[in-house]
Design a protein that fits this description.
single chain; 1 helix
């Protein structure tokens, strides 16, 4: 075991909606099957931006952390344009504040990419657990999303002195579940 390259400072639930699908074919389904949603491409919303102002109310433990503190957001939603989406339609959005530690070994990955990759991976785990917990006692039984990683995500390249713009959104989830 070794110390992580990032620290998760806080998470926030921004949006949550889970609705059972009105279809009796789910009556005898096997709950907690992580392969059930593997066939469905979930709509995603991803965002990452520097969050220097996080440390305005209290001094950071190390001054250089101001430049490596990020706001990361992940949203997942079942597709709205198809009917067969599994036993539940859901939309869930979480955000996190993370910091890339200054004493990490600098390798081939930038602080921006590390914040995006590890932040999204941590948030996906939070979302996966939340959906599993909330559906446990719902009508069609517990849903377990497949395990995912975001370690291949890259921040877009931009011109200028900073590699990460104020906000990155790739792509945004529009509308709502009821749309």
């Amino acid at each position: 075991m070794r110390k992580s390259k990032i620290q998760l400072l806080q998470t926030s639930l921004l949006k949550l909606s889970i609705e059972p699908v009105a279809d009796l074919k789910y009556e005898n389904r096997r709950p907690s099957n992580p392969f059930e949603y593997e066939k469905i491409t979930l709509e995603t919303s991803k965002a990452c931006s520097k969050l220097r102002e996080y440390w305005s109310a209290l001094p950071p433990p190390v001054e250089s952390i101001r430049e490596t503190t990020y706001h990361v957001q992940l949203g997942l939603r079942t597709p709205t344009d198809i009917d067969d989406v599994g036993p539940y339609r859901f939309e869930i959005v979480y955000s996190a504040v993370i910091t890339v530690l200054p004493d990490r070994a600098k390798g081939t990955i930038s602080d921006d990419d590390m914040a995006l990759q590890y932040g999204l991976t941590l948030l996906y785990g939070v979302i996966r657990e939340q959906i599993s917990t909330l559906t446990y006692k719902m009508s069609w039984g517990q849903v377990m999303l497949p395990t995912m990683t975001f370690l291949d995500e890259k921040t877009p390249t931009v011109d200028g002195p900073e590699s990460l713009p104020a906000s990155i959104e790739i792509p945004r989830i529009d509308g709502s579940l009821s749309a």
